[in-house]
């Protein structure tokens, strides 16, 4: 019998000239787990789990107004009055679930994995409000009623060894979902197969169909913390995907191994904010702010591992593409997904200096995040007034709309280092102390960008 509990909260504030932004978020998790042996090899694992995540932001902005009755400034410009306002947003997601899973060994060549899960989830989608003073009280966001749904799922997945070289794992998962008057059932088949050519080389391939009743809706603008989870409804249908992958593992000896894996994934009913939407104001028509579309992603990953008595190395490189397509966004054309990184590489190493002392390091690299930049307002010189006065009514301003996710930030790389001190192993009480340095090179974050345009 095991009991686990975790709670954590973070706060970030940005201040400066005309800037006073606050971001608060946190998690609370808890579980009770009971593990029961059914025999020498089989067991039953049952748990009751709880989780709650909440997210609150407050952003300052200024509203400028022209008072025509005020006197002109020194250079003849009109005086501008400004009023400070705050845009606040708040959301949370809370989940209770109970699940029981079993691994049953029938024979040396047959094993059955099966399980059952029931859960209840309550979501308060991202609600926004405008106030004259900063408001960091969660109780102040009351206009949007939380959404609650229940789901039930069960699965069965046998593992079958055919001879000495062939392994196959078919499976099926069934899920039921209820949200008020809306309910649906989904079946998700899957298949994994592997064939060992010799002692050094193994091929594998798999297929899996998945359904997800919870949607992650991403805000397209960099630096805006308005990504949120939403439940499926009669209008916002459950998301589904099919993924195919194939690869090989090569192990020339006990120390070295090489893995190559390629995949292709199709997605239906993926979600995005509808054009011109980035948050929810009215709880009654929030579904109108969401648009359904399709997506696809594909790529390959290459991994090398080296294990020894004192030295461990793992390096990987991934080349991938991820796309989304919506009828009402980007003129219906396909555009890169927010987390399309194209290139990603990692090298991790650990060296054992002594039985009590280890040192490890990590280098991580990724192509920059994809994001959408606001459009540009510029003056049309062909429509300029003859007297050259750019502010009279006869002058024409033109707005240039930017395509969705057309910008990519610069590449990101980071170096980490840590040292771990262990107590002697083999004792009844074992402990370790780890001291580390994260982001030694001071890499810039990938979440806030400033665009400068010459007009």
List SSEs in N-to-C order: EEEEEEEEEEEEEEEEEEEEEEEE
Low-pLDDT segments, ≥5 res: 390-394
What's the rounded overall pLDDT mean?
85
Please tell me how large the radius of gyration is.
28 Å
Helix percentage = under 10%
Instruction: Give the helix tally.
Output: 0
Tell me the β content. Answer: over 45%
Number of strands: 24
Tell me the span between the first and last alpha carbons: 67 Å
Structural class determined from secondary elements: mainly beta
Largest sheet: 18 strands, antiparallel
Shape: globular
Report on this structure.
The chain is mainly β. It is built from no helices and 24 strands. It has strands at 2-16, 19-37, 43-66, 80-107, 110-131, 147-162, 166-179, 182-196, 201-212, 214-217, 228-231, 239-250, 256-273, 290-307, 311-325, 335-336, 343-354, 357-366, 370-371, 376-379, 397-400, 407-408, 412-422, 432-437. The strands form 4 sheets. The chain has an 18-stranded antiparallel sheet that branches. A hairpin with a 2-residue loop joins β17 (343-354) and β18 (357-366). The termini are far apart.
List the helices and strands and how they pair.
Elements: E1 2-16, E2 19-37, E3 43-66, E4 80-107, E5 110-131, E6 147-162, E7 166-179, E8 182-196, E9 201-212, E10 214-217, E11 228-231, E12 239-250, E13 256-273, E14 290-307, E15 311-325, E16 335-336, E17 343-354, E18 357-366, E19 370-371, E20 376-379, E21 397-400, E22 407-408, E23 412-422, E24 432-437
Antiparallel strand pairs: 1-2, 2-3, 3-4, 4-5, 5-6, 6-7, 7-8, 8-9, 9-12, 10-11, 12-13, 13-14, 14-15, 15-16, 15-17, 17-18, 18-23, 19-22, 20-21, 23-24
């Amino acid at each position: 019998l095991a009991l686990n509990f975790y709670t954590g909260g973070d706060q970030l504030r940005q201040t400066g000239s005309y800037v006073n932004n606050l971001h608060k978020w946190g998690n609370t998790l808890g579980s009770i787990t009971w593990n029961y042996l059914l025999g020498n090899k089989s067991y039953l694992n049952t748990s009751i789990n709880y989780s709650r995540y909440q997210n609150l932001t407050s952003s300052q902005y200024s509203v400028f107004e022209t008072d025509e009755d005020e006197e002109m400034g020194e250079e003849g410009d009109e005086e501008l009055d400004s009023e400070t306002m705050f845009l606040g947003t708040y959301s949370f997601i809370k989940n209770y679930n109970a699940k029981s899973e079993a691994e049953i060994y029938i024979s040396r060549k047959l094993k059955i994995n099966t399980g059952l899960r029931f859960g209840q989830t309550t979501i308060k989608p991202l609600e926004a409000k405008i106030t004259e003073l900063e408001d960091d009280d969660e109780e102040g966001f009351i206009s949007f009623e939380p959404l609650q749904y229940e789901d039930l799922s069960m699965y069965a997945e046998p593992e079958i060894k055919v001879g000495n070289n062939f392994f196959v794992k078919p499976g099926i998962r069934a899920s039921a979902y209820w949200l008020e008057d809306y309910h649906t059932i989904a079946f998700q088949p899957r298949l994994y197969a592997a064939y060992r050519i010799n002692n050094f080389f193994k091929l594998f391939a798999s297929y899996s169909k998945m359904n997800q009743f919870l949607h992650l809706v991403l805000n397209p603008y960099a630096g805006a913390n308005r990504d949120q989870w939403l439940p499926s409804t009669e209008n916002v249908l459950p998301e589904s995907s099919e993924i195919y992958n194939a690869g090989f593992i090569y192990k020339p000896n006990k120390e070295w191994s090489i893995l190559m894996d390629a995949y292709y994934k199709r997605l239906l009913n993926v979600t995005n904010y509808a054009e011109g939407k980035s948050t929810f104001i009215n709880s009654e028509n929030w579904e109108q702010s969401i648009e359904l579309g399709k997506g696809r992603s594909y790529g390959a990953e290459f991994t090398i591992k080296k294990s020894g008595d004192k030295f461990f190395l793992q390096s990987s490189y991934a080349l991938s593409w991820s796309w989304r397509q919506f009828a009402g966004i980007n003129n219906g054309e396909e555009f890169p997904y927010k987390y399309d990184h194209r290139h990603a590489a990692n090298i991790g190493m650990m060296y054992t200096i002594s039985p009590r002392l280890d040192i490890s390091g990590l280098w991580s690299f990724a192509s920059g995040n994809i994001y959408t930049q606001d459009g540009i307002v510029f003056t049309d010189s062909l429509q300029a007034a003859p007297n050259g006065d750019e502010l009279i009514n006869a002058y024409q301003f033109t707005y240039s709309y930017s395509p969705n996710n057309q910008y990519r930030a610069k590449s990101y790389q980071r170096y980490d280092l840590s040292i771990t001190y262990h107590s002697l192993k083999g004792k009844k009480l074992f402990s370790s102390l780890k001291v580390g340095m994260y982001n030694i090179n001071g890499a810039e974050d990938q979440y806030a960008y400033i665009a400068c345009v010459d007009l």
